[in-house]
Amino acid sequence: TTSSHEEGCSRRWSLATHKFLGKNGKVCGVEVEQVEWIPGPDGGRPVMKPTGKVEVIEADLVLLAMGFLKPEHPQFAENVFVAGDAASGASLVVRAIASGRKAATDIDSYLNK
């Protein structure tokens, strides 16, 4: 995220995604809610607390960063790009990097056609 910030992108923290909004088959926004993080039980992992402050962020592209999906999980659909563990299951970091680079190239080609 440092390089994207240096290129002028904004970053927002402590937002929970409610839903993606679409029009004519294309994404046009993301409904989010501001959250607070409170200490977890016994000082463990923090717990997300909704604040009720909901807003829509306009978007024409949404990239998801997520963890591992089981290989048998349906993962390919038109205009959906996957990389790293989501595409091939848990593996080496170097493979995830290569997969991410290929996905970035494919996304760039898709957006510029």
TrEMBL record:
Gene3D superfamilies: FAD/NAD(P)-binding domain. InterPro entries: FAD/NAD-bd_sf, Glutamate_Synthase. This is Glutamate synthase. The lineage of its organism: Bacteria, Pseudomonadati, Bacteroidota, Bacteroidia, Bacteroidales.
